[in-house]
């Protein structure tokens, strides 16, 4: 029987009931013709709406369980739906379809679209309201997070919080006053939440936590290339130096001027960022005991040396090459023999233009003979001419002499000339050697001059290499082996990369020498590494950079998500578990010993004839079934699919799938110079150049022993992570708003992808329920211990903390006590900082508040003492009353002692009278003849005894009366005993006669029982055989169900992995298509249009394509029972899925308490739905179920079907099933009154599972009788 829908369950549009689809009114002739074909649109028998009596329709609807006056669920509700362009778009629900919602877009088009339930997310009540901390949102999901960031970005607010994590969106333009000295002063000493979100707030928080905890802090700035990481790092350094570096003198200036040097030599233009860091750096600012800046230190990682020799189209080499050409003086330009960028092989393959600031006016300062392209590219951050002038100033400020600066310029120019040296085959050399191309002689001379080498020695070093035999002389014989042209080019590039890399290391070392930190106690470090990268063509550089980002993302997951939840669990906090995507398997793919990609690459390099195809093939073979690794043909990008399996790797990173071309992996991983070039450098007349390489006259490192680029990078990264783990961490997530670098242009899809990759949705949910700030009881007590008066110093730390929070008037919801720490919720940083501030004024104020609260508390204790005294007075009065009662008892005892003889005789007489009653019992057991013989005498004896008892009771204390009474008593004793003996003798005689009679009857009965037993045994054997057959059938059915469950589970897991692969593959490919215009493989899935009406197929009705209105109207008007049943099942299915969606999208502050309805589902339920058997007849069945309710709202479990933590109370659930659907349900819990729900009245709150899906049928002891259910139901209704 259908149950009546809730008032939310009927579709209405403009307050009018919806009409059935027009197909429902087609002629019966057409319907019969379709039926004759066996398949097609079914036209149910309906009642015309114009002749329907509303009252009759309503009564009929109530009879079958449908209320026609009730609206459908959430019609008109505004929600967010997924969108390929904007990430999410606002829409309004207009129908509940078979697989999701039908919605109307809230834009100018007003188009109608359909979305599955998973692609529809709840929307804030006011979608135009934005908040500073995303944890303040009512609905916590990706759509509301993206919308809040969008609204703030449109209002010029590039920063927002997720608890204590800062989200920064690059504005791609300078914002006036946003990083000014005035702004720096505003944020000093301010807690998070007291001012607008800003990078300065994170810097101030890290400094104060360093001082408070006496522990070094790290600020990890992460994001894609072009997201603004470098500028964020510079802002942090400037904030710290401006506030606490004024006493450091020159050190402060040098710290701030390290950026021009590092950016000139380590940054370059890429396709998506004009000032991209091509190396990682960890800049530490050290502080002394006084809290002032004491020095600094710069660590750098993985400089992209391959960029020196080649760049992708549209990219540039490092800035220093262009700055030197644009900004050098005419004399220096001439001395270095420089020219236009297109005259150098190391520059002309990429972008050859210069950058200039829009308002700098430097375009006229660069001589025209230095321009390859007369057009300048404007950029708000990069200006080649001005940056060169600033670079010279920074180098001098760092302490470099004029000679050392001149050495830098000559080395950079030498690299440019060295790149122009080309080679050709030497026809005169019988060994197949090469020689320098005639057109490159001049560049060879200039390179030799600038490097301090002889031209002939440089030529010989480039065209041949030295090999050392194992025998001959002290170290063996040196043999010169000529090189082929391509080998000579590789050697030339290796030399250029080695010189540049050594020069960069030396510059960083000199920077560190200029900012010593001998008096340092702790530091604040800022990490800035190259962001996650993906291009149409990705090589070894992106391979290493993305591995670094994988490690940092894993560190983020470990520190913020895993360790945070483990701490909550350890401290006993009731915080719900948050699931997140763990990328540990991807890291293992890279660095696993033996089979890891880095180890396979190093192993390939050890072979005499190493080949990238062999490496790629082995990588696929060793990790054949790895989820994160696949062949290029699985890529969504069309050009990637053209690669062979042994030419590329498709790796599914946390941020999406990236396809790497492995063509240059082997040579880029090997940065070892051959001996001739190392010996050549030692012959230079420039001592500084020689010192960069150290002593390598007789190198002993072989190809097998030398560390590769990948191995060095792994070691550096491991060292960095160890350092980060030892510090307190703060995270800044930089977001790139668009790929075109247009100011304040918001690309919702790209930003959503970055937020998903960064795991911000999981962090948002955790921080909303979690406690990002915490401190130990002892630490908080130690801050105040020295200032406490004697009467407060006796308090233990935990009690003092409670007093402090009570004194501050903090809400219990804002903090929570753990076992050893106290935790604060997000948004309560101001209160937390107020307690942790150690300035005397604040501490004195808080101690005063604690004292006042204690006085109040003690006054309450005094009131309690008075109440206790009153209670004691009442207790004394009660005891006095008890003494009076004891006196009464004593007086009674004395009286009984005086009349003891009479009382004793009275008691014996009463006992004899009771014994005489046995005479009546024996008379009752005699036969009728014997009973008539003794009845009169027995009754006479009993009457005499009764008179005797009455006489003794009324007798006075005279002795003669007592003696007569005693004699009479003795006489009656003998009389009673004699009569009892005679009666027993007669009884025995009667019993013997009765035994003989019964013996004859028992013999006859035994004969009949033997015959009955034989018949019963035969029936039991028949029943046993039937039960065995039923058990075997049941076991076979259970085994079938289990096999189907396992099979469906495997299919579900496979489907989940395929969906995850599809998601990761699309994330990068779609953004590549948008940014670079690459062609993608079409994978659009065509959705079959809904027929809008029921179809008849294979003897059944298919109503999956019908609208919600059609289902309702068909149920209310159709005369076809089979169609009613099909519509009911479809309606129940839609309602169940909809309720699951609604529970997932409920507001955080308005989640309903757990219901037993959800508790009757185990992990296999979703699988059982897919293999459910046809519905059973409408049989009334009743069940009960014990379940354990969780403290966390919205979750509960029963029995042992579901694993659940932090369970604290046991409840009972009673349910009445009418067929497969619930008719009534009753819930008893200890914390709330009984909850009674009835179908048709409380559908929105009731369980929507079918009987078969609850698994109650197979649960032992779950099914109960109707009477038991009704008794509990009445009890629940009364309460």
TrEMBL record:
SMART domains registered for this protein in UniProt: MYSc
GO MF annotation, one: microfilament motor activity
Example GO BP: actin filament-based movement
Annotated stretches, region: Actin-binding: 717-739
Name of one Pfam family that matches: MYO6_lever
InterPro entries in UniProt: Kinesin_motor_dom_sf, MYO6_lever, Myosin-VI_CBD, Myosin_head_motor_dom-like, Myosin_S1_N, MYSc_Myo6, P-loop_NTPase
Location(s) in or outside the cell: Cytoplasm
Keyword list, A-Z: Actin-binding, ATP-binding, Calmodulin-binding, Coiled coil, Cytoplasm, Motor protein, Myosin, Nucleotide-binding, Phosphoprotein
Record carries keyword Coiled coil: yes
Coiled-coil blocks: 985-1067
Superkingdom field: Eukaryota
Region ranges (Disordered): 1-61
Compositional bias of kind Polar residues: 27-36
Entry keyword annotation includes Aminoacyl-tRNA synthetase: no
Binding positions for ATP per the UniProt entry: 223-230
GO CC entries: actin cytoskeleton; cytoplasm; endocytic vesicle; myosin complex; plasma membrane
PROSITE patterns: IQ, MYOSIN_MOTOR
Protein family per UniProt: Belongs to the TRAFAC class myosin-kinesin ATPase superfamily. Myosin family.
Name used for this protein in its record: Myosin motor domain-containing protein
Source species taxonomy: Eukaryota, Metazoa, Ecdysozoa, Nematoda, Chromadorea
